UniProtKB/TrEMBL annotation:
It comes from the Bacteria. It holds the Pfam family LmeA. This is DUF2993 domain-containing protein. It comes from Cyanobacterium stanieri LEGE 03274. InterPro entries: DUF2993.
Length: 250
């Protein structure tokens, strides 16, 4: 079957389709660009040259904020007939690389105070063997020069109107399969005498923040190969793969 004439079909059309697809994965962005390189001869063979996604100041669909995200994918196999009809359907997985940067502020934002207070409000919390109502007030994060991260939460003990602090440090490491970041050498510096419910809720949410599911785009997988720490930022470098364009709606 002969393909329709591609002279008027190229990067502009494909880019509109790709941009619309990937915008569904972001709820807010200071800057977001999606750029697909198309060679008409290769498109006839069902190949897109490359796909580049660049974003700054992002809040992802699952709530995690990112200072920067760069994803580059190459030689993406597509169904050319479906692409001509506005449906960029991948015919095989393609690979590339990705870089994601988190700031201290990004990590604090991801540690949702409202969520933590919702968890603790469902349980009877005791402090020094006394029942008490607690409320998370503020969360601070410091990315340290020794590749550790320190997170401190201020907790209001409502009955006494006093503030307790929970402070812990840990070293993010890449799990063996590269599909996540684990918290190694977890050390509680303050607050470990507080209720286990408070400690567990706080630690659990920190683990969730570093779960790659929270900043992976639908259809794109990441395999982390390095973590770099500098200037109050955590840089995650990874191999990237794409199996399909995002299908979620905004």
């Amino acid at each position: 079957m002969a393909l329709p004439n591609l002279n008027n079909f190229g990067e502009t059309t494909i880019n509109k389709i790709a941009t619309k697809a990937f915008e569904t994965q972001v709820t807010q962005a200071r800057e977001l660009s999606v750029n697909v390189k198309v060679n008409r001869q290769n498109l006839r063979k069902g190949i897109l040259e490359s796909l580049e996604i660049n974003g700054e100041g992002l809040i992802m669909k699952r709530g995690l904020s990112l200072e920067q995200m760069n994803i580059n994918l190459y030689e993406i196999g597509v169904n050319p007939l479906k692409a001509l009809m506005g449906n960029v359907q991948l015919t095989k997985p393609s690979e590339g690389n990705a870089c994601i940067i988190l700031t201290e502020k990004d990590i604090c934002t991801a540690l949702n105070i409202g969520y933590l207070n919702g968890i603790t409000s469902n349980y009877d919390v005791s402090v020094n063997n006394q029942p008490i109502h607690i409320k998370f007030e503020n969360i601070h994060c410091n990315i340290l020069a020794d590749h550790r991260i320190m997170i401190t939460a201020e907790v209001l003990l409502q009955e006494t109107n006093s503030i307790e602090r929970i402070s812990l440090s840990f070293k993010p490491i890449i799990c063996d399969q590269g599909n996540g970041v684990l918290l190694d050498n977890l050390d509680y510096l303050e607050g470990k005498e507080l209720s286990p419910i408070i400690i567990d809720a706080f630690t659990s949410q920190i683990c969730d923040v570093f779960n790659l599911d929270h900043f992976v785009i639908d259809g794109i997988s990441l395999q982390v190969n390095s973590l770099d720490f500098s200037g109050g930022m955590l840089k995650v470098s990874a191999l990237a793969g794409i199996s399909h364009f995002p299908m979620g709606n905004k």
